[in-house]
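Can't paste images in this forum, so I'm doing it all in text. The chain is below; anyone willing to post the predicted structure tokens underneath?
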Amino acid sequence: MLVSLHLAAMWGAEDIWARGLMLAHFGLFILWQPFMRGEQRLTSSQVAAIIAIALGTLYFLNWWLLALWVSVLAGIVGGKVFLFQARWLRRFYLVVLLYLVSLLLVWIVPNSFVRVTLPGDVVFLAHYGLPILFLVMMVIPAEPDSTETPQVVDFFYAAMIVLLLIVLALGSFAFMTVGKLDYIMALSYSMLIIAGVLLILSFAWNPRAGFGGLSVYFSRYLLSIGLPFERWLYFLAELSQLETKPERFMKEACVGLARLPWVSGGFWHTAGESGDFGKVSKNSVEYTNQEIHLRVFTELPLSPSLIWHFQLLGQLLGEFYVAKQREQKLQQQTYVQAVHETGARMTHDVKNLLQSLNVLCAAAERDTAPDAGGELSSLMRRQLPAITQRLQQTLDKLQKPDASNGRFIKADTWWEGLQRSYAGRGVEFSREGPGDAVMLPKELFDCAGDNLLQNALRKRRLDESVTIRASFRCDDAIEFTVCDTGTPVAAEVLRGLMRGPVPSESGFGIGLYQTSRLAEISGFSLQLRDNDQGRVCFSLRGEVRRGARQ
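Text version of the structure:
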């Protein structure tokens, strides 16, 4: 590409062969250009632009157009130089930049001016000295970029280089016209003046006199474009103190985000919930991390500085959200720890109660008189052993809270025991499928049966018209369901039900939370299957386990 450009410049912009070489140079530039990947399909407008440039090269090429093109090409190369991490590749592009600037100032710009005669040594340098740089490029070790690395051109550096070259050329022309100087002296004066201006700007950008320079004002400008950063940070901090629930905090924060002048709307979603705010527009920007996904719509396309602002804003929102999640988990752990400590203090009382029940059971078993077969005696003989066994299990769990559940019971035995325990209490029982060889985790199903039925009976104490139905299915899967015709679970309670303690009219949901955790450990799942007015059903479901395990 550079060789074809060099030959075209040496022949002259008006030569017909030079125009053909420039057309070849433009084709090679299309193959090299860093703006579009090779596998990308060209649109009709892009094809039309390429054809227009090719025709313009053939019919309208002159020295000034050639100078402008070389300046743009030098800007593109200069915009790539400072982005390469590979040492030899960066040096290669520095040599390319040196060649383009030298070709522009030594040969193209002088030929663009009228009545400029170049010395013979300058012409010799242009014809035979500049091609030496091609040999330098050839001996530089090849370090190709990774195919996954995007080809980026720094627009700021590219624009600065193009503008400096244009100012250098026009400044030389001004010195030649006004000062009646030759080209070499005019170019030298222009370079000295531009170097002095750049030196003054470098000192003004970061002065050493103890006061802020242009860099401070530039940074302040970037940090204040359309986004009151300090006000937004204050709003998040204040909202964090007022709102404790992570999802509600996220919702209120996004509503506050819509108050920014450049935000028209957006949507967000987390692992548990999602929501939207404002209105949708065609311009948007996204932020995603492991916990949240946030997309904001804007009325106008965002500049790079505003996109950077939004990334910082989204990161702050994500950090506050994660902090709220950690706070909620810490509260749950503290609550569970308090419940455990309370249970440990009750262990001694439960032990005394168990000893008393053991005495009653022994007395009931010894009492075999004929007149002792009344209804009360029958009830005591049926219920006291079951109560004793349950209290013993509770005591074992209080004394060894980390002990795993390893006891299993036949499905028929457990189901018959549950019916005996709640006989005469207005609960309808139904059974599907055989269960003689199916083994159930005893602790899990005892806990689930008692918690679900007691909750339903508590509803019936408040409303006597509530009916309760317990069903047990044991065919392809094990499913125990308790349904009642009472009122559904409230929406604010439903969000945290079975995931932690939740305040309600009759408790804190600790029983359902413990049952859900125990179901997860045992390979089962406890869920609220129906939550409608007149039909509230909790279901415990898991895979069938066959065999006899004691």
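The chain has a mean pLDDT of 79. The first strand starts at residue 265 and ends at 269.
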